[in-house]
Design brief:
single chain, mainly alpha, 10 helices, about 65% helix, about 0% strand
Length: about 240
Amino acid sequence: MSEAGVSPEEDRKAWLRRLANEFLKLEALFPITSFLPDEGLPPWVEKVEQEIGATMFPVARIKDDLNLTPNRMGALIGHSCAIAVWMIEALQFEIERAPELDESKFTAEQLEHGAKIFYGIVNDWYPAFRRLAKRALCTSVDRTYDEMTEFLLAYSAGFSRKPKKFGMPDVGHSAMEIYFFMLMYWRGVNALGSVRQLHEVLVNRFGPYRVGELKRIEKICQRIGLHYRKPGRPKEK
């Protein structure tokens, strides 16, 4: 219900903004920082990020306009909570395998760094996500019937898409692993001379069956705006 003197539209925007602000604060609690620089990225790298985000959060439709709606906010939180649960399950799986690991293969710094990431996720980031989910679901009860329905249906649709296996999340289409590879090694990809060279690199990494024909990689490059210079005659002196 709206507060006295506040229009339903303003009250709705304030509710969504509060959830969005809390959602954005969770990024600072995640113990793994982005490996991408804040500036100087080629446009195609940013496009790859958008493609990955759109694939991992399909119900939120983040490739459309970015207006906050109960549907989009519910989907973002639902998808994120599903990924958070998947991550905790993956960590539990690794803990159960821990006795099989040879710690002598790792340096003390690597073990310490791994422990820091583990406890940061388990003790800080994941509990914060649970608090956000509880607050979001509870506050939706105070909204109008239509707003609550829109929010809860989107949350449920997003939450139901938890990845089913560990390792590379089984989300989205088969191009996801190619997108992740290109994002991870964007400098090397950017330095290649042609789509054919990129195709060869991907085939060496994933195998011809998973990568597909050259035409497929050409279409991916067109979609993300990755253009290589066409070979031509050298300039005359």
